[in-house]
Amino acid sequence: MPKATGAPLVKTTRAFAVHQVTLECDIFSASDYPKDGLVFLFFHSGGLVCGARSVVPPWLVQTCYQRKWPLLSASYRLLPQVDGPGLLQDAQAAYDFARSLDGQTDRRVVVGGASAGFFMAALIAHHAKPKPAALLSITGIPSFRHPFFNSSTLIPPTPVKEEEVDPFIAEPVSIGNSAFPPAIFYLDCLLPSGSKNPTFEVPDEVLSPGVGQDPSRGMLYDYFLYDNAFLSMVGSVDLGFDWARDESQRSRLTAWPVTIFIQGDDDPDVSPSVCEDVVQALGREKAKLCLAKGRAHLFEKTSYVEDTDEGMDAVRHAIDELDKSLASV
Hints:
Rossmann fold; GDXG_lipolytic_enzyme; AB_hydrolase_fold
């Protein structure tokens, strides 16, 4: 494991674009990080309808801190007020910002995301140039073109009532800012060495800093799933992964970044079959799947690198695979 950085971790917040609303990112870094080193760009979970950039798993912060990688957690506009091209515009702006961090012009960037946040990462890999150095999927959604997301008999079992979501559909454009304290990353949860702080206690607050979005906005995700509505909203930029099985797309596959998937094998929200099918399409040279036995969706969202539960073995395996892929490029 790389040695921890010698300077304390700090958090700053920067605006990186104005697309109807101001888009910001939280940057976790230290003063002794190299100014031209690799950057990690992260997109939060929330089904593209809720969530917050403050929700970053501690183990990911530790991983970046140990390697002296600035970690950027970026906001993006939410469905249904924005469409697929709007999401791509936000993802591209965050990627451009990460590549130019600290006045540089071409920093290498690993792009990752949790759950639907990985859809944002996949958009960058599909559409941006140059391609990311690698992708990291944390129980992520690589594409809404997979059949799992387009059959109302799978999830959810019962429809959400239209009157329940009407207030959210009528809202103005917004970014995610709703999060529950246990899932929010706080600097004090780590010691200066970057290891877990055993005395840390989660602050008593209801929401992360921001407007205070209604947490029940998340029911929009089930509502759209039941109506098989995601492709109508994002399909124009969601290229799927069936192309990777086409020999005529070999040059495109060659350019695709190594993609590492962390997945619980008991995940009802993103079936393991989704990531398994994508890994099979991309092939073993381009994709690695790290399965956590008996774990559900976002099982690692409040975990630390040094935690000993079996699920974290899959996370540590994924980190090792990421290190190997970056060393070989």
